[in-house]
Structures are given as C-alpha cells and as structure tokens.
Write a structure and sequence with these properties.
This protein is of the alpha+beta class. It contains nine helices and four strands, in the order H-H-E-H-E-E-H-E-H-H-H-H-H. 71% of the residues lie in helices and 11% in strands.
Length: 282
C-alpha cells in the first residue's frame, strides 16, 4: 500500500498498457478448440528425440512431447489442410506403413465448430462481465466505487491475456473457463476493500485498508498456493494433463494481477476519492 495515490495508480496502469501492447503485437496463441484442426497423439514406451520430426514437418504442425507414468506421448497439432502431409511425415519418422501400427489417437475439430466454441466463450465472458458490472453498481450506488471495481476486474482479464501472450499459453475452452473464474476472484477482493473503506469511516483510511489487506491477501494467497500445488503435481506426475496446467497457470497469473489491481489501483483511486475528492465536497 503506497501513500502517494498517483504512484499507486500508475504501476497497475503501466502493466495494463504493456499487456495491451503484447496482445496487439504478439497476439495470443490459440488451440485447435478455437482455430479448428487435427491433433494426433502417439504413445511410445521410451524417450524419443523428436527434433528430426519437427525438422521434417517444417512448421506445418506444432509438436511436443509429454512424459507420464506409463510412457511418453508425442502430440502433433496441425491445420486440417495439412493433415495428410503431416501423417505422411509421421509414418516416415516411425518407419511404418500405417498409423494403425502405432498406439495413436486422433481428434479433429472443424472450423465451424471451433468458431462456435470461440464465439460462445466470448459471449460467456462478456455476459458475465456485464452482469457483474450491473450487480456491483446496484450494490454500491456510487459511480466511482463501482467504476473502480469494474476497472480492476477488466484490468485483471487484460493482464491475464497479456501474460498468456508472453508465456505462449493457448487460448482454449479450458483457459476461457479460467478467465471466467478470474472475474469472480477479482470482484471478491475488490468488493471487500471498497466495502471496508466506504463503511468504516470511524477509522483512518490506512488502518481500514490494512485490515482489508489481511483478509484479502490471505484469501488470494491461499488460492495461489493451491494452484501452485496443482501446477507442480501436473508438471511432475501427470504432464499429459496439460489442460489442468494451463488453467492453474492462468489463474496464478490473474491472481497476481488481482493483487496489483486491488491493492494499488483500487486502493489508490479510493485514497484519492476519500482523502481529496470527497473531503473537498464536505
């Protein structure tokens, strides 16, 4: 908690602008849930060097290797128009005449279906955000208090998306669900702070914020710890469950953003509102 509200507001705004620039220039990687395409998963019993396969595919597919308790999984993702060529390269790499000779599975999502997934995911986030904003406004009936909660929640989402762009975390149906959860976590901590500040006027602003921080940071850090444990368990023991790892990572990044936005941005604006703006009105 900073004494100068200008610095307190400037730091999260800088993160917000940086995130917008990252999203604008670098973009966010999208899974086949969103873009459409084919995913081929091949189970092998030993560790295989997939560099030659990557080289032969020449950028026509994304390939990664995952380790699990019962062996290794090679996952190849490509656009629908490249499927036959990719399959040919895989057969050459494993020296087989047919993929049926391998322990493999194949998942294909059409472009129309993936576009529908993406559209519905965006609708879900938009409606959740709109109804959250309405509920917050009616709860406080104060445009400044309501506006800063909504701004903090929006900033949490944008910074989370910027972090996904920076760390190449795919936007998928799973990470969209994580982003929906982010709205709930953000509103929870920001309402806690705003309610304490506006209703406990008998105490100083700093004392009220410190009390709110004890409760708010305890809740947020507990969730971050739980997500870290989940992430570690997945990475060490079940790396094939990369969807869980992506959800945990997105939530961790968003919750860190929420700490910055709640206790710097929201607290900074509330400090200005209580100590300067409202003081001049009295």
């Amino acid at each position: 908690m900073l004494k100068d509200y200008r610095v307190s507001i400037a730091i999260p705004i800088a993160f917000l602008i940086l995130s917008i620039l990252l999203i604008g220039f670098k973009g966010i990687p999208k899974s086949i849930d969103i873009t459409g395409g084919t995913e081929i998963t091949i189970k092998v019993d030993k560790n295989i060097d997939i560099a030659p396969l990557k080289e032969s595919l020449d950028g026509k597919a994304e390939i990664k290797k995952l380790k699990s308790a019962d062996g290794y999984y090679i996952v190849v993702r490509c656009k629908s128009e490249n499927v036959e060529e990719v399959k040919k390269k895989i057969k050459e790499f494993f020296n087989v005449n047919s993929l049926d000779e391998l322990n493999y599975s194949e998942k294909t999502i059409g472009a129309m279906l993936s576009a529908k997934f993406f559209e519905e995911g965006l609708k879900a986030i938009s409606f959740a955000f709109i109804f959250m904003a309405i509920a917050v406004y009616f709860a406080f009936r104060n445009p400044i208090a309501s506006g800063v909660i909504i701004l903090s929640a929006l900033s949490d989402l944008i910074i989370a998306l910027g972090a996904m762009s920076l760390f190449n975390i795919e936007l998928s149906s799973a990470t969209i669900a994580a982003l929906l959860m982010v709205i709930g976590y953000s509103v929870d901590s920001n309402i806690l702070l705003t309610t304490r500040v506006l209703k406990r006027l008998t105490k100083s602003f700093d004392e009220t914020v410190r009390e709110a921080m004890k409760t708010g940071l305890t809740m947020t850090l507990t969730t971050i710890t739980a997500m870290l444990i989940l992430l570690i368990v997945v990475k060490l023991f079940i790396p094939v469950a990369d969807i869980l790892a992506n959800i945990a990572t997105v939530l961790i990044l968003a919750l860190v953003a929420d700490i910055i936005n709640t206790w710097l941005l929201n607290a900074g604006i509330l400090r200005y509102y209580i100590t300067e703006y409202r003081a001049k009105k009295i």
